[in-house]
Specification:
This protein is α/β, with parallel strands linked by helices. It is 49% helix and 13% strand. An 8-stranded mixed β-sheet has the order 3-2-4-1-5-6-7-8, sandwiched between helices. Strand 5, helix 9 and strand 6 form a beta-alpha-beta unit. The longest helix is centred in the N-terminal third of the chain and has 17 residues. The protein is elongated, with a radius of gyration of 22 Å. The two termini are 16 Å apart. The protein binds guanosine-5'-diphosphate. Guanosine-5'-diphosphate (GDP) binds next to helix 5. GO terms for molecular function: 7S RNA binding; endoplasmic reticulum signal peptide binding; GTP binding; GTPase activity. It comes from Spirodela intermedia. Component of a signal recognition particle (SRP) complex that consists of a 7SL RNA molecule of 300 nucleotides and six protein subunits: SRP72, SRP68, SRP54, SRP19, SRP14 and SRP9.
């Protein structure tokens, strides 16, 4: 189930509830069960969905609502509030400041969209007057440096990397040092990925992080991986201190729910939605997102 379908299913459930002549426990339960089914089909974590249902039932106590109360509106508002609460990633653990050098390290599995996202992140800030720079510390994937170089050149962003050096820690350190000297205020370090979570990858992330002392570590996640997103985010979080999440490939036929689960795995996270084009990079804002989701 893609996100648009998820929103459609929740809206339909609310509409059906709204059309009922009398709003009683049975109608409310049917509505909540329908919403629960839609969220589970979209791959949102079971625990989160169960909590949401419990919270709505706590807020909407039909027995206590005096006659004259607009039960339909109260239920709709409770669903909206709970969806917002569930998806609210909270405040970012660190917000870079223009003119003050910040190191941002990107981590994630191979193919998640790290390299693409690094350039988008740099370009997004460059357009707002920042002085970003890109460091390619991915020595694992052949062609990673070329890809970053190509992206960086196209966007006119300075970059650093090596065809010969095989130590990612050394490259990351050198790159960060160089761009600090050049007064860049957003030094972005792209790191290696693997196809699956491997001990070696996590150890490498730990070492790069130790050497570059990033102000913020952003976990890049492919939205199409569904519920596995939650476990993956947790695994990365155990090795390095992830402070934000960027969800990629929301333009595809991804279920999206996994991504939704991921954005609340820790409250101190924020999220970007990005698409294939450089200038369609958007900061996640929970209320407009839920409003849009429900149509
Ligand atoms: P990395 O291995 O994590 O660095 O991943 P890449 O940045 O090389 O991306 C892997 C593939 O996914 C490339 O073909 C990208 O063009 C593609 N890609 C990255 N982000 C997006 C996105 O938001 N939407 C779509 N459709 N494709 C993406």
């Amino acid at each position: 189930m893609v996100l648009a379908q998820l929103g459609g299913s929740i809206s339909k459930a609310l509409q059906r509830m709204s059309n009922a002549t009398i709003i009683d426990e049975k109608v409310l339960n049917e509505c909540l069960n329908e919403i629960t089914r839609a969220l589970l089909q979209a791959d949102v974590q079971f625990r989160m969905v169960a909590d949401m249902q419990k919270n709505i039932k706590k807020v909407v106590n039909l027995d206590d609502l005096a006659a004259g109360h607009n039960k339909r509106r109260i239920i709709q508002q409770a669903v909206f509030n709970e969806l917002c609460k569930m998806l609210d990633p909270g405040k970012p653990s660190f917000t870079p400041k223009k003119g003050k050098p910040s190191v941002i390290m990107f981590v994630g599995l191979q193919g998640s969209g790290k390299t693409t996202t690094c350039t988008k992140y740099a370009y997004y800030h460059q357009k707002k007057g920042w002085k970003p720079a890109l460091v390619c510390a991915d020595t694992f994937r052949a062609g990673a440096f070329d890809q970053l170089k190509q992206n960086a050149t196209k966007a006119k962003i300075p970059f650093y990397g090596s065809y010969t050096e095989s130590d990612p820690v050394k490259i990351a350190e050198e790159g960060v040092e160089r761009f600090k000297k050049e007064n860049c205020d957003l030094i972005i370090v792209d790191t290696s990925g693997r196809h699956k979570q491997e001990v070696a990858l996590f150890e490498e992330m730990r070492q790069v992080s130790e050497a570059t002392k990033p102000d913020l570590i952003i976990f890049v996640m492919d939205s199409s991986i569904g519920q596995a997103a939650f476990d993956q985010a947790q695994a990365f979080k155990q090795s390095v201190s992830v402070g934000a999440v960027i969800v990629t490939k929301m333009d595809g036929h991804a279920k999206g729910g996994g991504a939704l689960s991921c954005c609340c795995y820790k409250k101190s996270c924020y999220i970007h939605w990005n698409w294939e084009h450089m200038d369609e990079f958007e900061v996640f804002d929970v209320k407009p997102f839920v409003s849009r989701l429900l149509g």
